[in-house]
Amino acid sequence: MRADADRLEFRIDSREGSARAGRLITPHGEVETPAFIPLATTAAVRGLDTDEVAALGYGMVLGNTFHLFLKPGHERIAELGGLHRFMSWDGAIVTDSGGFQIFSLAHGSVADEVKGRRGAAGSHGSILEIAEEGVRFRSYLDGVEKFMGPEESMQVQASLGSDIALAFDECTPFHADYDYTARSTERTHRWLDRCTRWHEAHGPAGQALFGIVQGGTHQDLRRSSVERVTAAAIDGISIGGTLGQDKDQMRAVLGFTVPLLPLEAPKHLLGIGEPDDLLDGIALGLDVFDCAVPTRLGRHGVALAPLPDQRFRINVKGRSLEADQDPLVAGCPCPACTRHSRAYLHYLARAGELTAVRLLTVHNLVYLERLMAGAREAIRAGRFEAYRRAGLAGAAPWAA
Question: What's the whole-model pTM score?
Fold first, then answer.
């Protein structure tokens, strides 16, 4: 690994066990950690203006390399001043490698895998070839053949001008067998070498590069991946790939992977954002998390809530709420909870009103921001383990 404060600086200010509170210092400001990163998949956090996202307490968003590569195109965004200027966002931006979305065309999405919809892969696009050079695939937009390899991923992310770029990788699914996962992981490591070479020669000043640890659910593959990735010229580490078929297996995989990582390195867990998973991840020493959970749930009429027996969710469309005059989540400071009743939100959601999507998205983002802010405060005060236990038992983030 490398350390260059012009690209990225990571400071750990407080520790409690493995949990730590610190700061990621980027060219576009500081991000307090542990932090949750909302997805700005297509250069926007769904339904919200960037000023609203910043006002909720977020200092970093994640842009989607794959989708922005296809539309409007990284060249167009570069011509318009880069992703920060394009979307009028003054904070930090991390861009993913594009690998997850590309390989979802072959393997299906996480939701497809969990629900057993193996045939759904390729329904909106398709993989034509996975080779050492890179991946040829058809765009889900128009069926036109496209290519992306390590150098292309780096070039797209350089054109976008993100603060943190991720190395190109294959995100293997849970149903991939050991041999395929091993071959894929080794190829990802070779792609990492190409990413670092391109980034060293052509990467924009100030852009950090994170490598991605793969290896599926296999302890030996995860260990070898950690050794390989941490030896590369990178500024931080992300954990990717399948983490198992349920939460118990995910905790086990993270439990034997995270302790292998360099203690002082910033650690990013890709695609995880459930409240209980965030609390457990922080306890292991993870610093940054991203996930579609708050915005996706909001679009489907679901609110995050301190209800562990209901997967920390309230189905706002449920009939039990149609005459309920209580606030959505008592004590939550968001507009949905302070200004409206459950009955009104239920009506909006059932009617398909966009107002419901906005209100629930804001609520979910407020919930996770308060959860993370509370975790940071608890670590600094030396009471994070109590905070985690209370949160897992159903205490609200503002009351734990």
Answer: 0.94
